[in-house]
Design brief:
The chain is α+β, with helices and mostly antiparallel strands. It is built from 17 helices and 42 strands. The strands form eleven sheets. It has a six-stranded antiparallel sheet. Helix 6 runs parallel beside helix 7, helix 8 runs parallel beside helix 10 and helix 14 packs parallel to helix 15. The radius of gyration is 30 Å and the shape is globular. The N and C termini lie far apart (106 Å). The N terminus is likely disordered.
Amino acid sequence: MKKTFIYLMLLILMVACNKQEIQINRMIELNKNWKLIQETTGNEYDAVVPGCVHTDLLNNNVIEDPFFRTNEKKQQWIDKEDWSYLSEFEVDEEVLAYESVELNFKGLDTYADVYLNDSLILKANNMFREWLVECENLLKPGKNKLRVYFHSPINIGLEKLKAHGYALPASNDQSENGELGDKKVSIFTRKAPYHYGWDWGPRFVTSGIWRPVYLKVWNKAKINNIQIVQNELNEKEAKLTGNVSINSSGNQDVTIQIKNTGKVLYSEKASLKTGENSLSINYVIENPKLWWTKGLGDQHLYNISTSILVENQVIETKETTIGLRTIKLVQKPDEFGKSFYFELNGVPVFMKGANHIPNDIFLNRVTPEIYEREIKTAAESNMNMLRVWGGGIYEDDVFYDLCDKYGILVWQDFMFACSMYPGNEEFLANIKQEAKDNVIRLRNHPSIALWCGNNEIDVAWSEHSEGGWGWKQQYNDEQHKEIWTAYEKIFHEILPNAVNEYDPGKAYWPSSPMAGPKQSASYTSTSGDMHYWGVWHGKEPFSAFDEKRARFMSEYGFQSFPELSTVKKYALPEDFNIESEVMAAHQRSGIGNLRIKEYMSWYYKTPKDFETFLYVGQVLQAEGIKMGIEAHRRDMPYNMGTLYWQINDCWPVASWSSMDYYGKWKALQYFVKKAFEDVLISPFLAGDSVAIFIVSDKLENTKAKIKLELLDFEGNSVLGQTSDIEVIANSSKIYTSLPKKLLDLKMTNKNYVLLVSLYDSDKLLTSNVLYFDEIKDLALPKAKIEHKITKTETGFTIELSTDKLAKNVYLMADAEDGFFSDNYFDLLPERPVKISYTTKNTSADLEKVLKITSLVDSYQ
């Protein structure tokens, strides 16, 4: 008996020892101890990974701030050099004991030869791909040397251009700024197009290790990727399938376990073969909670963990956050043409949002905090969609995580924009892998609503119509055929096939804008989506927004300058003229600064100085885009989306953005927040009457009271009207109107404002105003604005009142982190408002730094 007991104890000990020998798969960061080498000179600098050559040179004081004045011009030499990144890292016996060790580069920008201990292990050629290389046979105990040699993307691009035999269209490639003349090389390299310049961005063609580097070490098996497919969704249950791709080092049995926030949903044995294995695992979530967009419900998320267990020990776990929802792009024939709207959880949803570009020209500087600032701004501005535009990047995971969190749907472009592309086999194979990598990476996010092939290429080439941008006319028949064949191969075969294979059921739209199959978009299209640039490029008035109707308006916009505090970061006082060299360098739309000035002359009196020009320019942009948003929302359900261009900037610049590079809200952002409210009241003067529209995105009818007041600029009411109404859910409708004759009888001149308000009992839901002439032609009074400041835990409250109409009241303070809850608003007599000012510096004397101005002050 004693021997038997000893034997059992030894057996238990042996099993325990064996169990301890099973090593958990690990990801080891290799993002420290890097050096940058300039290959032509041998100069060596400290480097940061993730990073890029430009920011490393800046950090080492080799170059000055690229954004200051015209420094951009002086730094075009950088992209014509070859550079290397070098690092040494330690590897111990424990790492070498693993069956498999892989180098994992999350992103290499772009033409990179990777050497491990002087052996070439990888030649990378695509910024958008992830690279994985087995390297266990090259590693040694102790120090190991990793070298990444980056070839000049410009020099390689020039080689590819020469080999191609003729140039391809690339409208926004600023080759002249890059000292290349008319040689546009961006299209030959799978790299962020905007790095080569755009009509709102500088030209800095970067190189570097732009995403993290890891050693992936694993034994037995590893999880490659997971797809969670929603098969059925109802109030009682969500039936899901987890498609799990696993690599196995041999034929073996393992346990696959799936949990939802700790609760086991599935735990079963699986037999793996050597190499890649694909498992489909069905499981159920009971009483599911739906994921909704901002304004329609909660953004409920489920944390699904998938684990591999060997001998009851977890060796690897992957976490996947999902939201349970249905999303469809609905295109149905109707009396006008064909619809284009998104249906979320069975409900048609009007999309309110903007176009997103990368938050910096140097991508390594975009922190999670910057991403959150942008997505939180979108949510606070009542948006429910952002379009990730095709001239930037497939964004970092954190961007989509935040969209999931805040309830923002994503229209996801593939990274092709405003260019035609080569069609050789190597290039196409590269794109195919790029699409696979990114669709697999992003497909589980509930925020992903649509995959779109490209930005503006179909409409620019216009193969099936006489329109276009004049591109196709530049080529002979053979070249024309070759170019269009490549287009069809990429956007009608490779990309939709990738979506169908790796994210089946998700909508794919070949190009934005587009009217439909073999139908390029126009300003008269009654199907598909539209980019309307009659306002701005076409010099059409803001009133044209009411005339150009779209089924889904995915681009439109108007420019403004950032505020003076931002301009001071890139310009000196001697540059404070919109036609100065520095201001022109920070305006990439050639017509830009003078176009702003021209539009301003149509609507506003001439500002008295540079600072007030910036202020009035922001008001001009805000009022114009407000008109566009309201026109699109009033046109619901014919129009079911409005995405203005653009929410953010990649450097400090005059552009179409609603917040500047530093995250400061322009007037437009404040106006957007109001124009995108769940319930909008919109007075519209047309013909013989003023129609009062109410647009509701709510899913239930709302009892309300509508109040109309005609006021003179002294605040005297000359006409009032109140009525009880029921606001119909998810609709746009005229609820009342005022005959123009009645208004004319009450007004002795044009100096009146119509205030329209919607109340729930005594609570103000929303309000809006209508003026009866262009602002420049109104006799705006010089108002006496009074204010009272009260300290709060997070900053201050400012109570404002006025004796007369104060148009576009603008509050300013010195604090960099300060934020006003409202700004650029119209302040009416007898209607005081309270504004919150949030700042970390709550001990500051706000009274000393607060400046209050209004539109009259810009010219008096």
